[in-house]
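Worked example

This section walks through a single chain of length 135. The input is the sequence exactly as stored; nothing has been trimmed or padded.
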Amino acid sequence: MKLLSLLTLILCPFLAIAEPEEKAPAPIKHIDAKAASKLLEEKDKAKLPVILDIRTPTEFNKGHIEKAKNIDYIADTFEEEIAKLDKGKPYLLHCRSGGRSNESLIIFKKLGFRNIYHLDGGIIAWEKEKFKVVE
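Given that input, the structure is written out below as tokens.
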């Protein structure tokens, strides 16, 4: 008991002045359609996000953001397909209204992705702002 008290007296001053650990930036940023559109205007290709549309292929073919890559969240291979992506690249993630893409964030975190932009409101929010979609 005396040893424990002695160690506490010796170590407490050092623990009090220890620097707090720096927190890593949150890998997921929630943005609206206007911020997403501005993000897609990035001139630096390294900062330009890959657009991931995780709706079904049928939904995707009815209209999607130009240059979007479709990986179906409902498909059995979704996590496997996501795991093949470069985890260091930035991604703009969306679905129809934000539900599926919000649920999928757990998978992106688990797989170690470091830079995800979630389009809150999905393609519905995008179209509401009158931003371009292609078929």
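What to look for: Residues 25-128 form a domain with the Oxidized Rhodanese; domain 1 fold (CATH 3.40.250.10).
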